[in-house]
Inverse folding.
């Protein structure tokens, strides 16, 4: 039996796709099937010109609602040529990895052609399959579906879909066990163990053939889940139990990637690398030992997400160890420089002094960070907001030195599901029940984001949508003025602009409110 | 970098001093290496390198030139026996930190070095390397063999502004032709997004 695994946009071009590499290795090991990875993302990039590529990126990201006829012709011709490669392989099953919500349009475009061209069974999986299908362009029949997966299945464009982790479900689906958790809408079950998984298979997607930024690299997984339960995050829902992989097998995979592919750069897929300090130290020590054994491993470097730890939980030796192991870049959700806001988020475990220590140690050892922050969190007062500004002034040298490589201010308070944020005191979310009707033309591609901003916290009523946007703009402008490089700021401001230009009733001012329960300005 | 209260020109006026930390490895022979540090030709520090690092602070000027003078090494600080070096006074530069932040090697490697060759070495070179003149000025290197003057990359204006600008110019970001937004994705951007900011401000008036 043969499985073709297809990787689609929107994904980075730097590294081979993680899901395809791992899941095909699992299918080969557990089922003994023949597999082949087909990277449509790379195929498309090499097939179309720069203008078309940029237009398509904007299309995938829903910053534009349609593409020009010329670009559409190029896209469809490319998919047709891609289909021929698949036909030659003649698979029994075809898997499509829908990486994120920005992959749903690409999935639809690809699958509607592949379905006609291939006789095999098709299934999809990945984080993006839970996205709302209303983002699909030019379709009015999608609105009643809750996910792109259910829509595509109902339209007979796919045969099955896998929700949640695919490591176990893919084997069960291909074995005909469609009743298994995670298949076709059944409640998914987290993977039992990360230690029994084979190493990813890069036979068809050699890391050296990718368009790496500085050096060829691969993704790697050390854990699933998170040790925190933050009000804004769904990771604990997806992976209720924080699961770690044995450090020996992790270090072995680093070694194998150097030995087999000459690849030294690794990107952790984990929600956080340092969920267990004991595990994290053991991993770093393992890499340092490997480097000391043979100089060919000296250049090993890695990057990943981490949480800010308190001084009690770590010291300078931990930072020295990470630097020696090859820590290159961490993405860290500091979230706010206001301890009060952080505490409400569930990030009460570290203080501002701990953030300062994190940056100080990063600076001493030359480890870069992408700093993730929120502005417009439901409890954020003006005083809290000023603290975020204080962060920018106080730590400017880390931006100039590249230690804070980039900063990002989050989605200006998008909360459609208030339960988590309300579970703590000081928040009583009021969601405008008629918010959707206030749009003259709801931008479908970002519908979930647009509807997610129709709230106000009754306990912090001056934080209206207008005020949240004002704060977001102020942070943007301050970053530019001081010299803090930002990531994806234009994308996010474009989303806000697309929401605001379509929002008709946006005229009530909070100072006019006399009866908060009856009339509330959500905008 | 000392920062004062928030004002509009924090990168322009508030920087007073820059603190440097130089790490090194040195070996002893008769005595330890001795260095004099100059900032814009003004003496800053005279240090005996008998440890593993030294630190100093300088007040930044519009143009800044940092210069190390290794002044005590002579031929007597190298002990030979049958043409083999038994013991030597040496100096090897390690990592450099500015304001406690590790900085990239180019601050040193973009500089240059004017060695004070020993007479015996000059004589020997003349005899044995007739086809290769002894250079007066060499690219900087981490391991220093001869005493002499070591010049670091000159900077203009505020250290961190200059550092950021120089660093980004030196960064090699591959495959930008394949991924037109690669630089923004890799390094972020200072794009003011003036158009979007203006339009959004109109909405929240």
């Amino acid at each position: 039996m043969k499985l073709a695994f297809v990787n689609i946009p929107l994904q980075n071009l730097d590294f081979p796709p993680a899901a395809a590499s791992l899941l095909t290795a699992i299918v080969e090991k557990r089922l003994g099937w023949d597999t082949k990875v087909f990277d449509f993302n790379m195929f498309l990039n090499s097939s179309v010109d720069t203008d078309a590529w940029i237009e398509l990126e904007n299309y995938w990201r829903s910053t534009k609602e349609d593409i020009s006829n010329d670009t559409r012709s190029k896209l469809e011709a490319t998919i047709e040529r891609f289909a021929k490669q698949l036909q030659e392989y003649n698979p029994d099953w075809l898997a499509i990895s829908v990486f994120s919500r920005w992959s749903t349009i690409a999935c639809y475009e690809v699958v509607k052609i592949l379905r006609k061209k291939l006789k095999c069974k098709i299934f999809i999986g990945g984080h993006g399959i839970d996205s709302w299908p209303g983002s699909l362009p030019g379709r009015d029949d999608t609105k009643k579906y809750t996910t792109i997966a259910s829509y595509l299945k109902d339209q007979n464009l796919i045969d099955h879909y896998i929700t949640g982790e695919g490591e176990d479900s893919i084997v069960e689906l291909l074995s005909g066990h469609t009743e298994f958790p995670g298949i076709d809408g059944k409640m998914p079950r987290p993977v039992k163990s990360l230690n029994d998984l084979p190493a990813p298979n890069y036979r068809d997607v050699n890391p050296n053939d990718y368009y790496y930024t500085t050096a060829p690299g691969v993704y790697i997984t050390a854990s699933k889940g998170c040790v925190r339960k933050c009000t804004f995050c769904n990771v604990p829902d997806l992976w209720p139990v924080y699961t770690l992989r044995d450090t020996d097998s992790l270090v072995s995979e680093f070694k194998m990637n150097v030995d087999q592919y000459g690849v030294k750069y690794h990107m952790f897929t984990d929600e956080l690398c340092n969920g267990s300090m004991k595990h994290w130290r053991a991993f770093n020590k393992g890499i340092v030992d490997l480097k000391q054994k043979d100089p060919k491993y000296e250049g090993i470097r890695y990057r990943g997400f981490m949480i800010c730890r308190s001084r009690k939980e770590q010291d300078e030796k931990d930072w020295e160890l990470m630097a020696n192991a090859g820590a290159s870049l961490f993405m860290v959700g500091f979230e706010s420089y206001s301890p009060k806001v952080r505490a409400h988020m569930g990030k009460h475990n570290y203080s501002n002094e701990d953030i300062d220590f994190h940056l100080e140690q990063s600076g001493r050892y030359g480890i870069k960070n992408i700093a993730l922050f929120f502005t417009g969190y439901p409890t954020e007062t003006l005083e809290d907001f000023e603290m975020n500004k204080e962060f920018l002034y106080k730590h400017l040298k880390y931006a100039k030195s590249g230690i804070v490589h980039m900063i990002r201010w989050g989605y200006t308070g998008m909360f459609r599901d208030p339960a988590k944020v309300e579970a703590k005191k000081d928040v009583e979310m009021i969601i405008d029940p008629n918010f959707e009707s206030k749009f003259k033309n709801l931008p479908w591609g970002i519908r979930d984001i647009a509807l997610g901003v129709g709230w106000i916290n009754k306990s912090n009523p001056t934080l209206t949508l207008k005020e949240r946007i004002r704060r977001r703009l102020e942070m943007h402008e301050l970053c530019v003025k001081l010299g803090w490089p930002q990531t994806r700021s234009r994308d996010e401001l474009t989303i806000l602009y697309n929401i605001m230009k379509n929002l008709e009733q946006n005229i009530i001012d909070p100072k006019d409110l006399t009866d908060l329960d009856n009339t509330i300005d959500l905008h | 970098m000392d920062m004062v209260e928030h004002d509009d020109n924090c990168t322009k006026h508030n920087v007073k001093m820059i603190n440097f930390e130089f790490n090194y490895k040195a070996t002893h022979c008769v005595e330890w290496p001795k260095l004099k540090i100059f900032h814009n030709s003004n003496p800053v520090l005279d240090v005996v390198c008998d440890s593993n690092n030294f630190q100093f602070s300088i007040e930044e000027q519009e143009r800044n030139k940092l210069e190390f003078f290794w002044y005590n090494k002579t031929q007597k600080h190298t002990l030979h026996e049958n043409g083999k070096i038994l013991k030597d006074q040496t100096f090897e530069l390690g990592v450099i930190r500015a304001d406690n932040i590790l900085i990239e090697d180019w601050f040193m490697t973009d500089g240059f070095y004017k060695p004070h060759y020993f007479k015996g070495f000059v004589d020997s070179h003349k005899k044995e390397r007739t086809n290769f003149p002894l250079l007066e000025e060499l690219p900087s290197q981490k391991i220093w063999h001869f005493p002499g003057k070591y010049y670091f990359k000159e900077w203009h204006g505020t250290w961190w502004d200059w550092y950021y600008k120089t660093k980004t110019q030196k960064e090699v970001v591959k495959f930008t032709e394949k991924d037109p937004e690669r630089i923004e994705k890799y390094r972020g951007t200072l794009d003011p997004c003036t158009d979007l900011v203006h339009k959004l401000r109109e909405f929240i008036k």
Notes: The mean pLDDT of chain A is 90. The first strand of chain A starts at residue 2 and ends at 7.
